[in-house]
Specification:
mainly beta; 4-stranded antiparallel β-sheet; Lipocalin; elongated
Length: 123
């Protein structure tokens, strides 16, 4: 059994310099990354990344639960630091990156975890 856990870590330089106002922001690729974990039968945990992605998010600090996130991940850029495993993951039995080159993620709401972090459940 393989289980996937995915995290999209987004950043924006706006947060560091000025108060955040309700708006739509592009994901700052220089300060963001997509990471995932694969649990292999409970015996090992493998970390992977998606190296090519883009997207945007709506954020309102006064109402964070109404925030949303859209991201487009390129399946062919998935890397687990193991060429054979990457080939399997990108192949026909998993993501089939030739036929389905993009993985779309839509988070329609958010949950504040701390003053500096949150979670976007989605599909």
């Amino acid at each position: 059994m393989w289980k996937f856990w995915t995290a999209l870590i987004i950043g924006t330089s706006t947060f560091a310099t000025t108060p955040v106002r309700a708006a739509t922001y592009d994901i700052d690729l220089a300060h963001s990354h997509v990471a995932f974990f694969i649990d292999h039968v409970g015996f090992s945990r493998i970390i992977g990344v998606v190296n090519d992605f883009d997207g945007s998010f709506n954020f309102d600090a006064a109402k964070p639960e109404a925030s949303s996130l859209k991201a487009d991940l390129k399946a062919a850029s998935i890397s687990t630091n193991n060429p054979q495993r990457d080939s399997d993951i990108q192949g026909e039995k998993w993501f089939n990156s030739v036929r389905f080159p993009s993985i779309s993620f839509n988070g329609k709401s958010s949950k504040k975890l701390t003053d500096k972090s949150g979670r976007f459940p989605g599909t």
